[in-house]
Amino acid sequence: MIELSLEKARKWFTEEHEQRLAPLAEFALGELNNQDRDAFGKGWIGWPAADHSALYRDVDAIAADFRAKSNATVVIGIGGSYLGAQSALSMAKPAFTGEGGHEVIFAGQQLSPTYHAHLLQYLDKREVTLVVVSKSGTTLEPSAVFHTFREYLEKRYGAEEANRRICAITDAEKGSLRQFADERKYVTLPIPDDIGGRYSVLTAVGLLPMALAGIDYKRVMQGAARMREELSKFKVADHPAVKYALARHVLYQQGFVAEALVTYEPRVADFAGWWQQLFGESQGKDGTGLFPTMLRYTTDLHSMGQYVQDARKILVETVLDVHFSDEPELAVPHGLDEKNAYLDGVSFSRLQEVAVESVMVAHSEAGVPNILIRAKGDPESLYGELVYFFEVACAVGGYLMGTNPFDQPGVEAYKNEMRSRLKA
């Protein structure tokens, strides 16, 4: 269940704004649902409600096989090929699992020789399988790391056994990784042509890592399908994802140039990283767009709180207040000293609730617009709901700005420069 509150942003985004801009909001939502525009990037819209029984069978089979062969799977990818899966694992698994179980480790999301060398040493004491995620197979970071780890598997297990320990999630028909996987008879899963990387977490890109980690990914998909169904019932004036997108749009026009997704639950911090890429890559183009960043409260209140409260007012805070159904009961003990007596017996849930309310009041009164998105439910279903909610809001926001939310022309500049230097 997701609820949107604009109460602490109404000084800047009024009901008059909503009424006056209603035609623009209607247009933006219409553009999202218009399959004649940017159709190549819109496959995610109906994806959660489609029949994926064949995909599920393949995911379950590969996960079972890899879990039987190994106790650690390295998932190699960058951007949308890893951020979504990482955030799902963080949200749906306990923070402290100890020994045992199947470990999912991410690599290829950067080029640190230290990180990857140490990881290879770590794997020496484990049985290892490998998942490489790349639509084209030519993205520099995962390509370099994949072939390094592939060689490690081949030296350790022999070429034939190594091939049985590798899964490629890639384009169904074309690309260098597809060709490489077919030649070596890797097991493969497809990335749909009409779903871009940052919108792909509900495809095999995210589902296989979830399955390997023991997450009920079908509940994730059910949550996304439920959110899709719920959003389809709203008229534009009451549509929470559209209202969130419109509020961001209006605030940006008033000079707020950055948005921080504020989380209070550590299990949601990696989700903020996925959100950051989704909005940054979808809307940061044509010289416009809010700069997306993230803040982890209450931790960051003791490092960044002063800046947010008293510095130049350039920031919008979107507070993602998440409560999971598996949230345990924990309270401060009784019998505290006089100065701490106000904490006597107070539950941590209440402390968190008071922190959210107090910070929003203090920051909004200081001139920082605060948007509240409150979410409740079991971790798997809620993850799917949040993914779909923000994907809709992001795409609508792109159309409000007049940009294509599904391309990323700017990221090619540094890639081309790196390739030219390496080929020189």
Automatic annotation (TrEMBL):
Keywords noted in UniProt: Gluconeogenesis, Glycolysis, Isomerase
Record pathway: Carbohydrate degradation; glycolysis; D-glyceraldehyde 3-phosphate and glycerone phosphate from D-glucose: step 2/4
Domain of life where this protein originates: Bacteria
Catalytic activity: alpha-D-glucose 6-phosphate = beta-D-fructose 6-phosphate
Pfam families in alphabetical order: PGI
Annotated EC: 5.3.1.9
A molecular function (GO) term: glucose-6-phosphate isomerase activity
Enzyme's top EC category: isomerase
PANTHER family: GLUCOSE-6-PHOSPHATE ISOMERASE
Similarity comment: Belongs to the GPI family.
Protein's recorded name: Glucose-6-phosphate isomerase
Organism per entry: Alicyclobacillus mali (ex Roth et al. 2021)
